[in-house]
Amino acid sequence: MSIFFRLIRIVRPWAGWMLLAAFLSFAATGSGIGLLMTAAYLIAKAALQPPLAALQIGIVGVRFFGLARGVLRYLERLASHDTTFRILTSLRLWFYDALEPLAPARLMQFRSADLLQRIVDDIQSLENLYTRVLAPPVTALLTALLLWFLLGFWSPLAAVILLSFHLLAGIGVPLLTARLSRGTASGILRWKAEEQMLALDFAQGLAELQMYGGIERHRKRLEHAESEKLALERKSALVDGMQETLIGLIMNAAVLGVLSAVLPEVSTGTLSGIALSIATLAVMASFEPFLPLPGSVRHLEADIHAGKRIFEILDATPEVTEPSSPRPIQGELPIEATALSFTYPGTLRPALDAVSFMILQGARVAIVGPSGSGKSTLTSLLVRFWNPGSGTLRIGRHPIEEYSPEALRRHIALVSQRTYVFAETIRENLLLARPGATDHELGKALRAAGLNHFPTRLGEFAGQHGMQLSGGERQRLAIARAILQDAPVVILDEATASLDAPTEQEVLRRIEEASEGKTIITITHRLQEMERFGSILVLKDGRLAETGTHTELMRKQGVYHAMWNSQHQSIDGQQ
To answer: How much is the pTM?
Structure first.
């Protein structure tokens, strides 16, 4: 139940709104009971054919409670829905604020579809926490207290009998249905999540499934998840029908019990026949707020399951935290690594091992090396996606941990090899880098990235994951975004890998022209026109194998020389 109490603490700021909505619900239910009681009084009284004046109290009561019931029910719905939407909005903002520091390091272990399920559906299911878990017991308890009080005036024995049946309907039936449906609510959520993950994988991987003949196998997995979910939903529906039937039987039994208690008093004249009819309808009406209680137990199970999945993410310790007193970023930003090492969680081999280098402000530096040598890991450390395992990494002559990650990323423009283009227009994708940029500035950045015809296409939809664009256009759009950011440090992590060699060199030349005075760090596997770099860092197996200019490294005839010869012999052979 610790998950439940944690959820309660989250919605505590809206306790006043929840109490108001619960009171209005009780008042609306009480008005409904009052309507039936006054109607019973009016009908029973009229049967005795009294003067019309004697019926005025009943007539006024029916009108009053009839109007009050409608108005109060409307106000209750208004208050409860407003409360629910406030809670839901708060939960989404709270979850996102807690989730953001975990990206990307702590979120790598989760599938994207699973994350989407938790962010959308699990949060959505928590809207039931108030309307279907907390409010119904409060309304039922207040209604029961009202009826015990009213009935106790006429017959204490009848009040005790009604109490016993209320306890049976309010505690016994929910416990029974909870036992019969144990695991159903959480199972439905679990299979629904599995179904959505499979559906998303199917949509995103359709081309690969078609190519390798995996559509039928994937379809069977999807059908299995759907059938398991439907089986649990059928079980839940059967339990729903059973609990409604049980409460109906308990209500009828309560009426018989109360009648058996008050009939002797009616026969002796202690109570009138009118009071008997009023008591009968009041007892029947009092069970209305007990109908949602068994469902509250099942929704509680679903909410706890959803809360557990949410807290499973949020309880993770962020890899990168905000410093208590962030250092302002100002002046030149030289980059210096001293014995820098890093090992990914769950692995034994260091991705970087005692790497040391110095990059001055305004330098043109290339980082090269075989796949898996640690090039992209170094990029992740520079933008604080991860913290160094050991050694120091300084930017602006201060340890990188002293800077706010958000502020640091505003001063470093990164174009990675996995470019993400949002399902928005080309303009909206560019404005991520500088929200207030004009179309003229956007066009200038696009032309600098080699997209000369794109300034006239700013309003075009880029498609899901940018699929309306070619791979090369997506990469150049990301480059334009980095140019628009106007950061003092630009990191190109295989940013031109999807371009042919001549186009790549032209784009890199334009980037250098647009980034005069800025530090440009280029991570590449293509050793083309390397003479333009003032320094080249050569990584191998996580270590800095060599450093120097192209000419110096070729003279050493080491790792770089071997890579150069291997690539150019391959190119010569193809020609």
So the answer is: 0.73
Q: Are residues 343 and 487 in the same domain?
A: yes
Q: What tens digit of pLDDT does each residue of 288-330 get?
A: 999 999 888 888 888 888 888 888 888 888 888 889 899 999 8
Which residue range is the domain that position 245 belongs to? Answer: 2-314
Report the Cα 550 to chain-centroid distance in Å.
48
Query: 251, 284, 314: which is the final residue of a domain?
Result: 314
**Relative orientation angle of helices 293-314 and 56-99, to the nearest 10 degrees:** 20
Q: What is the CATH number of the domain that holds 459?
A: 3.40.50.300
Q: Are residues 113 and 252 in the same domain?
A: yes
Residue 326 inside a domain? The answer is: no
> Measured between alpha carbons, how far is 523 from 501 in angstroms, rounded to an integer?
15
**If phi over 0 gives left and psi between -120 and 50 gives alpha, with beta otherwise, what is residue 372?**
left
User: What stretches in the chain show pLDDT beneath 70?
Assistant: 1, 570-575
Q: What is the CA radius of gyration of the chain?
A: 35
Residue 261 covered by a domain = yes
Whether 355 is in a domain gets the answer: yes
In this structure, are 535 and 398 located in the same domain? yes
Amino acid, res. 53: A
CB 200 within 8 A of CB 231: no
Contact yes or no for 126/89 (Cβ under 8 A) = no
H helix runs in 395-520, sequence order: 405-410, 426-431, 439-448, 471-485, 501-514
56 burial via Cβ count (<10 Å: 0-12, 13-18, 19+): exposed
CATH code for position 180: 1.20.1560.10
Give the span between the Cα atoms of 263 and 274, in whole angstroms.
Answer: 12
What is the Cα–Cα distance from 235 to 240, expressed in whole angstroms?
9
Residue with tokens 């108001």, as numbered in its chain? 20
Q: Report phi then psi at 62, rounded to 5.
A: -60, -45
